[in-house]
Amino acid sequence: MSLTAIVVTHDSAEVLPACLGALARDHIPALVVDNASRDDSVAVAHRHGARVIRNARNEGYGRANNIGVRAAEGARHVLILNPDLVLQTGAAAALRTAARDWPDAGLLAPRIHEPDGRFFYQPRSLLAPYLTNPKGLRAPPEGDACAPFLSGACLMTERAFFLELGGFDPNIFLFYEDDDLCRRVADAGRALVHVHGALALHGRGRSSAPEPGRVFRTRWHQAWSRAYVSRKYGLPDPSPGMLTTNAPKAALSALVLRRAGLERYGGSAAGAWAALRGVSALAREGLVEEGLAEEVSAAELAP
After folding, report:
1. pLDDT at position 115, please?
2. Does this model's pTM top 0.85?
3. What pLDDT, in 10s, does the model give residues 35-51?
């Protein structure tokens, strides 16, 4: 089957070579959608033979992936993966085999291991319509299995099906876009399949280079997106509780001059407060309108 990998980058030059190298080893064409990187991400992508789409601004994870999937014309399947995720030998083949063996699968994901060797498996999702596991009991699968949630760090799906669903929700800048997609796939009557024989290594938290204010921004979007998807599916709004919990902690951190706590708790409180006031994540990021993207060639990057 024809398969194209979509890799969204934002200041990801350090981790991108391993990701693209693994794809090239298994002869999987890569399409890199760059979210206005300030480092050498675009040049690195070209050196590894990837096709590159450069966004004029940071569109967020889901929106940039939508751009990439739409551009992957001719591919029957797309493999969406983070730039700090490295497929191990045979993983792509295992995913392809599983897609043939489980034709009702809407999304397939590999077995993901973290840098410390831990097997990442999320046993429940806020939005799961089945296999809800309310107590969150962790019993990782030992073979291919249906799951309540598959991580957006690496997903394989039919391109046409993804586009029919509308892709990732474009109102979400970051976080919970994978929960939302999994929910819509399940609501469409398709399965979420964990493919145990496909192994991938994930350098969690290394997709983008660290920068001041990143933790605050991250926590802002986590809080906002949780409130957004909860409202979208008729669940109780968590914003009041998040605000009540995090605002005092942020104030205490400011009082004792603890920057890490101020960013962490202040970001969560600010995101919850924004959700309560009806401020959108796109407005915060200056993305009220759909962003413009341009495809760049290696020749354009030559000195």
Report:
1. 85
2. yes
3. 999 999 999 999 999 99
